[in-house]
Design brief:
heterodimer, A: 410 residues, alpha/beta, D-Maltodextrin-Binding Protein, domain 2, 4 domains, five-stranded mixed sheet, three-stranded parallel sheet, 15 helices, globular, B: 273 residues, mainly alpha
Chain lengths: 410, 273
């Protein structure tokens, strides 16, 4: 009889000691951690695209870890999905970043809005490795604010088991082919991305400020809409390799070279878009000196070659390119022929009214934005009427009930 | 006095995390970039009637499905013995312990063209059919994620019903159907009302569900707000104005929902408007 009581007591004691031990462990860990934090002098805030640094997952060097090991500086590494998210985060300026990696047109925009600071090239000796063709570009003519990090082009990933056309025959028009209805995946993080391919298909400049041309592109987007399976900003590789999608325009990536599936193809149409992601330091960075150290570290040819192999894009450093594996070095996907690169257009920063026009046109195509305001006002009126009607009906009913009650008493 | 001291943390919490953000939304919604008063943002919001209608309609559909499924499950659970009830309620709550995003990813895996369901179908020789990136997938996501909030309040209101009332109904000659219509259902209305409110409101304002399961083919209100804060179009002023209009619309909806229950009992209900 007493046994039950004893058992309870034993369980109670075991639990008690477990909790005590656990609490002591946490306390110990906490003290150790705070000690470590005191020793580590500072934390460098790095804000980068998703999957845009080698993190050691596919056999290449873990770049951030290596930097921490060499210098003792801790890195707080966070990622963003597109240029506009980066801009939103910087404009809202809750957190201060030390290193950011925007691409071409966004560098221009940030620079014009005084959100970048000049790089101190005396602290970045490795910047001399950057190839001449990536210097003095339109977004940073004097090479003061940015240092090229990666570049690439946009092409079309396709599944040969579904797509019957030969590689030569594939151009932007195939994304409007009714044969592949509900089998096309479009990438898009922002309105400019979705206008990009429509403008390329029409053969216009991707930086056009012409209203007619932009309206024609918007019509193309509307025409394409029923053929689209989904608009995504990532997930392209998973969906193409699972055979779920026939066609998907996306950035050229070493993923396709590493993939052994023979059904997967990648082709670069004649006129395409070239992008360049560059390292910058925001104007309000707290540790600019350490940021320059980090940038110098990233430009070291040995590190850069490991890094670019892990990322899968193309490197702007010939010294680094010479160190990567030959399957990447000789790849026509990562380093296409001269004529493709010459014809490729670069996104430029547009004037505000063109940006507004693009946003407006895009919202009309996707969010069925209309010019008619009465409809929503009507919705509000109807809902309010329903509410007031119900309330009125109820009070009427309650009154009647009250009256009935009174009658009974009388 | 004592009551006030106990209330202080709650009041401070309310001010910092509810009142201040609301004032900020109001401020951003009614000003332009230089901080001057403008109604431009509000006018802009009224250009999206179809998006609002679509969101309300999807939320309504999801709530209706949740109500039918949730009421039946709550009714069945409440009729079982106490031990079994406890286990089943824990099972109902179990998905709530899992991360929201993770649940959506697993749903994506199930619905994909090469996913779980299509895998089973094709192994039996049926042809695949497309479920992802449709309106149905978004509604399924809503039902899947918010069903718990429908079952729990209805279940607790059903359990509270006094057994004696049911016996009395039986004694007076009511069969089970009549007992349900005249006794059980009216007494469970407070649970239904808070259930509807807790499913409808998050369904209307969701954005991640349509982003992940709907492929962003057609936008919901939440998508547009997301676009203005984190996405391609950075304009927190219009984003705030849209949130403001959505909040007012949902306030009216909550008012309508609360009219469904008896005024005298509304003190017991979750929301009083």
């Amino acid at each position: 009889m007493n046994f039950g009581f004893k058992k309870n007591k034993i369980i109670f004691f075991i639990l008690f000691f477990l909790i005590l031990g656990f609490a002591a462990f946490i306390l110990f860990k906490y003290i150790m951690l705070s000690k470590q934090n005191k020793e580590a002098s500072l934390i460098l805030n790095v804000y980068n695209w998703g999957n845009h640094i080698s993190d050691g997952t596919n056999g290449y060097l873990n770049v951030n870890e290596e930097f921490e090991k060499n210098t003792g500086i801790k890195i707080n590494y966070t990622t963003y999905p597109d240029n506009e998210s980066l801009y939103a985060k910087l404009a809202a300026s809750g957190t201060k970043y030390d290193v950011i990696i925007p691409s071409d047109y966004m560098i221009d925009k940030l620079k014009k809005e005084n959100m970048l600071q000049k790089l101190d090239f005396s602290l970045i000796p490795n910047s001399s490795y950057i190839d001449e063709e990536f210097k003095n570009l339109e977004h940073d003519p004097q090479n003061e604010y940015s240092l090229p990090y990666t570049w690439g082009i946009i092409g079309i990933y396709y599944n040969k088991s579904i797509v019957s056309e030969l590689e030569k025959e594939i151009d932007w028009n195939i994304l409007w082919n009714k044969k592949y209805e509900k089998n096309i995946l479009m990438f898009e993080g922002n309105p400019r991305d979705s206008f990009l391919i429509a403008l390329l298909k029409l053969g216009f400049s991707i930086n056009t400020t012409n209203k007619n041309e932009l309206e024609m592109a918007a019509n193309e987007i509307i025409k394409q809409k029923p053929l689209i399976k989904g608009y995504v900003s990532d997930q392209v590789f998973e969906r193409v390799s699972s055979g779920e999608t026939a066609l998907a325009p996306y950035y050229a990536d070493a993923w396709i070279i590493n993939n052994k599936d023979k059904n997967l193809g990648f082709t670069i149409p004649k006129n395409t878009n070239k992008f360049l992601n560059s390292i910058c330091v925001p104007a309000n960075a707290e540790h600019p000196k350490e940021a320059m150290m980090y940038i110098n570290f990233l430009c070291d040819p040995e590190i850069a070659s490991q890094n670019i192999s892990g990322i899968g894009y193309s490197t702007p450093e010939n010294a680094a390119r010479e160190k990567i594996e030959s399957k990447f070095y000789h790849s026509k996907i990562l380093y296409p022929d001269e004529d493709i690169i010459k014809n490729a257009q670069v996104l430029k920063n547009l004037p505000q009214d063109t940006n507004d026009l693009i946003n407006d046109l895009w919202l009309k195509t996707r969010a069925s934005k209309s010019n008619d305001t009465t409809k929503l006002v009507l919705i509000f009126l109807i809902f309010s009427c329903v509410y007031i009607g119900l309330k009125f009906y109820k009070s009427l009913k309650n009154k009647r009930k009250l009256n009935k009650g009174n009658l009974v008493i009388v | 006095m004592k009551k006030r001291i106990i209330l202080t943390p709650y009041i401070v919490w309310c001010i910092v995390f509810i009142i201040v953000p609301m004032v900020l939304v109001l401020f951003f919604g009614l000003t332009d970039e230089s901080g001057k008063f403008t109604t431009r943002n509000l006018c802009e919001v009224f250009l999206y009637p179809d998006v609002f209608l679509r969101s309300l309609w999807l939320g309504f559909k999801a709530t209706a499905i949740c109500l039918v499924v949730g009421y039946l499950s709550a009714l069945i659970i409440s009729r079982l013995n106490v031990k079994l009830q406890k286990i089943l309620i824990i099972l109902v709550m179990l998905p709530m312990w899992m991360n929201f995003l993770l649940k959506i990813y697993s749903l994506m895996f199930i619905l994909q063209d090469n996913g779980f369901i299509n895998g089973i179908l094709s192994s039996f020789g049926f042809s695949k059919f497309n479920m992802m990136n449709t309106e149905g997938a978004v509604i399924l996501g809503m039902v899947y994620n918010f069903l718990t909030y429908m079952i729990l309040p209805i279940h607790s209101s059903l359990v509270e019903i006094d057994e004696k009332l049911l016996d009395a109904a039986k004694d007076l000659g009511a069969n089970y159907f009549m007992t349900f219509v005249k006794v059980i259902f009216p007494l469970s209305i407070p649970g239904i009302v808070s259930g509807i409110a807790m499913v409808f409101i998050p369904s209307v304002s969701t954005f991640i569900l349509s982003k992940m399961l709907g492929g962003r083919q057609n936008f919901l209100v939440g998508d547009i707000i997301d676009m203005h804060f984190l996405g391609g179009i950075y304009d927190p002023h219009i984003g705030s104005a849209i949130s403001l209009v959505l909040m007012i619309l949902l306030l009216i909806c909550t008012g309508i929902i609360n009219q469904l229950q008896n005024e005298n009992k509304s003190k017991k209900g979750a929301l009083v408007i």
